[in-house]
Amino acid sequence: MSKGKLAKFADMERYENVFQYPFSVVEQVPFEMKGRWREMYFHNDNPIVLELGCGKGEYAVGLARMFPDVNFIGVDIKGARMWTGATQALAEGLKNVAFLRTNIEIIDRFFGEGEVQEIWLTFSDPQMKNVRKRLTGTAFMERYRRFLVDGGIIHVKTDSNFLFTYTTYMVEHNHLPLLFRTEDLYHAIDIDDDTRRILSIRTYYESQWIERGKDIRYMKFRLPHGGPLEESGREIPVDDYRSYRRQGRSGVEMRK
User: Fold this and answer.
1) Residue 159 annotated as binding site
2) Catalytic site residue 125?
3) Does 150 appear as a known binding residue?
4) Is 206 assigned a ligand-binding role in the annotation?
5) N- or C-end of the chain: fewer Cβ atoms within 10 A?
6) b/e for 103-129, b at 16 or more Cβ within 10 A?
7) Is the Cα torsion angle 210, 124, 230, 248 positive or negative in sign?
8) pTM: predicted TM-score of the whole model, two decimal places
9) What parts of the sequence cross the membrane (predicted)?
10) Residue 84: which of 15, 135, 137, 174 has the closest Cα?
11) Neighbours of 55 (CB within 10 A)
12) Active-site residue among 69, 108, 125, 192?
């Protein structure tokens, strides 16, 4: 581990806007703010929006600047990356953004029923080999239902055709209300000005994909609470540039 990382972790331990509860910790230390984020941290009644897999926190911080009457929480397990957004938020005095360092697999342990209004999934790992690890998979959608308001909005922004196609099939198969969808975000002509302003925030990885000529895809849909969620079972071509020299396999084959 580099000296830079050690210094960042030391900073994170004293940052008032960072809460560190990886799986190894939360098993032994209860999270007292579950269901009480507004009361105990934000000290307001404003909506709460999560960015899951926030990386350097570009979206969490960028959205907090744009919407001072909304509370944002960036979630990731990578503390050295999260340090960037947490440090910036403190430097700018942003009181409506916080960071939670934990495993997203246990995200429902940190938020109470109906506590969250929206979720952003920005450039999530497509997890082409394991459907249960996909942040847009039905297993995670069931987790989100435990704390997202009924009909809450989920935003998906990705460079991965595999993840985007998979999510499209999942939304269609389960009849989830689709609010917007585009396969080429920065050339779409039917985006309203407010949405375009939000989507103009670019993450570190997004800038890399754009430089490589990759199309950026975006969709948003509602997640009602009622009814079981099912996988579509449809085959999806893998992303060649993310296949790590493995033989191309379908989404169905990878789930076996």
Assistant:
1) yes
2) yes
3) no
4) yes
5) C
6) ebeebbbbbeeebbbbbbbbbbebbbe
7) positive
8) 0.89
9) none
10) 15
11) 21
12) 125
Within the chain, residue ranges assigned H as helices are 3-14, 23-26, 37, 58-66, 79-92, 138-145, 161-173, 193-199, 204-211, 251-254
Identity of the amino acid at 34: K
Tens of pLDDT, residue by residue, the chain (256 residues): 445 888 998 999 999 999 998 877 767 677 899 999 999 999 999 999 999 999 999 999 999 999 999 999 999 999 989 999 999 999 999 999 999 999 999 999 999 999 999 999 999 999 999 999 999 999 999 999 999 999 999 999 999 999 999 999 999 999 999 999 999 888 788 888 878 888 788 777 777 777 777 789 999 999 999 999 999 999 999 998 664 343 433 333 333 3
The domains found in the chain, sorted by start residue, are 3-254 (3.40.50.150)
Rg of the chain's alpha carbons, rounded to an integer? 18
How many angstroms separate the CA atoms of 256 and 252, rounded? 7
Say if residue 218 carries a ligand binding annotation. Answer: no
